[in-house]
Amino acid sequence: MNSDKEKIILLEHSSAHQDILYAQLLFLIESGFKPVLWINENIAFKPDIIKGEYDIIKHKFYTAKERKVFAKELKKFVKKNNITNIIFNTAQGVKARNLVLRFLLSRVNIFGILHEAEKLSGFTQWTLSLKIKKYFVLNDYITDYCRSLNIKSLQIKSLYPFFIPYQNNVVKDKPRDNLLICVPGEVSVERRNYKFLVETIKQNRKKLHLSLKFVFLGRPVNEEGRNILKTIKDNNLDDIVATYYNYIEEAEYLKIINESDIILPLIDPEVKCFREYGFSKISGAYTVAFSFSKPLLTHVSMKHIEDFRNISFFYDYNNLIDVINSLALDKSAIKKISEKYKKIEKFTFEYQRKNYISYISGNKVT
């Protein structure tokens, strides 16, 4: 399958999920393929991070007309270059379905990453699955959920494409005295319990270790999000919590993640999407933590997930301040968890490269 630098398309039609493109490109390049990254021109992908031979083709994908051009050019490219395999980085939703169905009767193999596994029960995903028979999901607990649905016509496999070689391009600063806790993602109260964190910081400001700093690494998406940032400003918490009002460039985003000590997903039972995040989907906070081998600061309600038990510090509504103060006093536990990633096979690059290529090719990779 991978002789003579076979071209294989890695496609992202949306402007999201760029964080897992990097690893897949590396998997393909190091396995002897010539990947073609076919992407939405608005995606925040940083091409200079990846070293190796690959092509990038960018298209507009906003209007109906632009989506038609995207699909037409894709099909033309596939035919001209004898492409036999396409991997959809986001294999869900109507827009993905419309692209996939153009290849329904062709011999092109299509694989896909499913980000919201609860969609498997829906009609749109059913039509996508007329062509896609092999899906990746981004954690073992999501694989367990998919298998519980007992859809015998589909194959589901866990994939951990969480390797961003950004560190190789960075001259590390001198060691910092402060402990930086990062909350990645757009400031949305539906996805993360910002109200709890801000209120906890406000009520316990005098108890907080002086070295503790937080960063909300995303802009507010609506009025509720803007109110969170306003609360921080109105209560003079700016010296403890750094915030952004505007779009964050990918280079800045990755830089802050790299500099952070701990990733805080802020997902707990008070969050609207809590159940999904514990069974059928993964938060971007988890993926960046995995990508940079960062410990997670996780609510105890997520303790049923094995990965989190391995690489998390846990807190509840009553002890968050005690937990983070103890980490600020002694950062050695943080270092131990970061080093633990190397000892867990599923978090190693080579294991996931073989896992990815074997699933796509149907052959065991040694």
What are the main properties of this structure?
Rossmann fold, globular, alpha/beta, 16% strand
Written description of the protein model:
- The radius of gyration is 21 Å and the shape is globular.
- The chain has 366 residues and is α/β, with parallel strands linked by helices.
- 38% of the residues are buried.
- The chain starts with 6 loop residues before the first strand and ends in a 5-residue tail after the last helix.
- The protein is built from 14 helices and 13 strands.
- α7 links the parallel β9 (212-217) and β10.
- The strands form 3 sheets. A 7-stranded parallel sheet has the order 3-2-1-4-5-6-7, sandwiched between helices. Strands 10-9-8-11 form a 4-stranded parallel sheet.
- It has 2 domains: 7-161, Glycogen Phosphorylase B (Rossmann fold); 166-345, Glycogen Phosphorylase B (Rossmann fold), CATH 3.40.50.2000.
- The longest helix has 17 residues, at 64-80.
CATH architecture field of the largest domain: 3-Layer(aba) Sandwich
Question: What profile does the largest beta sheet have?
Answer: 7 strands, parallel
Find the CATH superfamily of the largest domain. Answer: Glycogen Phosphorylase B
How far is the first residue's CA from the last residue's CA?
A: 14 Å
Give the DSSP E fraction (strand runs of 2 or more residues). 15-25%
